[in-house]
Amino acid sequence: MSKDQLIVFDTTLRDGEQSPGASMTREEKIRIARALEAMKVDIIEAGFPIASNGDFESVKAVAEIVKDSTVCGLARAKQVDIERAGAAIKPANSGRIHTFLATSPIHMEQKLRMSPDEVVEAAAKSVRMARQFTDDVEFSPEDAGRSDPDFLCRVIEAVINEGATTINIPDTVGYNVPHQFGALIKDLIERVPNSDKAIFSVHCHNDLGLAVGNSLSAILNGARQVECTINGLGERAGNASLEEIVMAVRTRQDVFPCDTRLDTTQIMNCSKLVAGITGFNVQPNKAIVGANAFAHESGIHQDGVLKSRETYEIMRAQDVGWSNNKLVLGKHSGRAAFKSRMAELKLEFSSEEELNEVFARFKTLADKKHDIFDEDLLALVNETVIEAENESIKLVSLRVCCETGETPNATMTLNINGEEKQSEASGDGPVDACFKAIEKLTNTGVTLQLYSVNAITTGTDSQGEVTVRIEKDGRVINGQGADTDIVIASAKSYINALNKVMSNAGRTHPQMSAV
Fold first, then answer.
1. What's this model's pTM, rounded to 2 decimal places?
2. The domain spanning residue 192 has which CATH number?
3. DSSP symbols for 244-312
4. Which one of 41, 198, 337, 499 is most buried, by most CB atoms within 10 A?
């Protein structure tokens, strides 16, 4: 018996971006979209076009570049939203409009101030409008998890009659539990007269830690699209994790009557890319993509794995992109080998100049550390793209003096809009002194909210990857930097964030800005 296809709808670029501090620039969204396309994600929800001009341009740019995945834009059940979403997805080979309207009593009464009859009429009208721009229309009854099932049936029947091809049932506030949510999906499919004319989907939040459990229960009860994000990124406690759902379904084919078409070997690349861009690092014990996901410390476990992997591992690490042999290049590697490995990692370049720049940085890094790992290559690409996007402020040189019993001091030279400037500052530590020296030259008045350091690989010569999060006039902005010298990496990350301030790359919560 052939398996049904489970459609993967990734909303990292939209719902994932709504995590405070996870805002992405247009270029960052394009890079993640390319990685999702390489993983063969079916639908990429690229943003909320009405939220801002920047979000509109980002969705449009993704629609222009992505060829093999459907590109989706989110819209409230309002004409202006739907028209904006239609314009944003117009360049796509395959485009979808995802429109939504709340259906729970508390949302209808307290937020919408609409009667049930008005909600049904507005929902049907929104789908009718969206169909003017595309035949692929998805409708979500927001807060369906707390809505009256009888009313849900009424709304769903109405929007399918207007041409909605996907019905998404969101557990918007993460309130449901698996057996209850699965039963709701089954009930809706059985009771809605025209349910056979649409695919039923689910979108679960993780407020009670049940997003993946609820999603899997829904799949077992007839849902054939699942909405999720890389690393479970999302507002509040996050969304259902793509990698966990996909691998649960793939691993337990004895239980699930469906499977995805994803190339799961690309999961790790996507995970690292999203973590690097957003600054939301993956916890070591995170399922599938955490550093310890396939690690065994217990002697009994180690003995069992050595005798037979299946004793303690239910899936192969290589199937999700982990590699037993990560060492690939060194300082004697040539340009052809470098380019070949980049292609294997699905790391693409916008131009030959960009490839040459990354290769030059690779050679410089190879002189500093003997072994170059895949993670190092990804960091090199990130750093090159980051600097290419933001050219206002560049690090020229940095000298830091630090010794026991003395106040650390930093001397900083920056190129600001083509002019070199120098400053000196003291601080509580070398990084504090460095940041104060930068601030003396830029005078941005930002507030540092987060400073985080990760070793990219193992060993004392590993590159350090630094993430900073700063706040300026209500905008929260991330910056990243990597170097074998952690103080230099810190300076790069702070400068990266300040460049985004200069270019107005940060933004407020997209749905709040659309209200």
1. 0.81
2. 3.20.20.70
3. HHHHHHHHTTTT-SEE----GGGHHHHHHHHHHHH--PPPTT-TTTSTTTT---SHHHHHHHHH-GGGT
4. 41
